[in-house]
Amino acid sequence: MRNPSRVWILLTGLCATAVPAVAWAQVNEAAAVEAELVEPLPDPPELVLDQPEQPRMGAAGFFLGVNTLVGVGRSSGAYGGGRADLGLRIRNRTRHLGVDIRLGMGSGRLRRFTGRDRATEMAVGMEFRGYVNPQHPFQLFVAGGFGVGIVSVGDHEAPSTAECPSVAMFFADLSAGVGFAFPVSKIATLSTTVSVVRRTSSGDLTFVERTVNPPLRESDLLIGVSAQVVLVGYLSGLHPTN
Description:
Elements lengths: L3 H34 L21 E13 L7 E13 L5 E16 L2 E17 L7 E16 L11 E18 L4 E16 L3 E4 L5 E4 L1 E14 L8
Antiparallel strand pairs: 1-2, 1-10, 2-3, 3-4, 4-5, 5-6, 6-7, 7-10, 8-9
């Protein structure tokens, strides 16, 4: 018969070894079950920072235009001519406002008491524009401007040896009208304007109006209608529809 003390020691050792092993197995099993029951948390949303809006710049470009003027009403036939203009067009940031600065030269016909003479015209001027729908490709605007210049004709009565065989008038224009503009390419815009022009003159020449009695009368005032077509080439990135 075995010694009871040895048996007791053996059982005690087995219990001391088995109990921690069973407890560890139960802990691992509980952790595995808990891991299966707990759903993984979704990834946090990515933060998208709004890019600051780039400040809008004004529009600017150079233009070539053709301008015609004819007298109307009592000034009908007193003067009529055409002019080629070169200039600079500037638009503000919102594109609601614009200004043209121009220099032009042309020719026409001026009525005198002796007949109609060929005249040469040179002028400088500014025109201001207010755009009704600046964000639309087809843009409507109202325009108003002013200009000064000189009209000269040959003096038939001057001797051939005269230093200045011509006579001239200085004039000042005020205009108001309407027009529209539309893009023809990524950097170019075509615009047209119809305006009423009030031209006052001073100098050796005057306008000659047709009346009933007398049939012709001098006047320093011309009321006319002007039509102009302008092609604008804008600088890179400064097109008004950008």
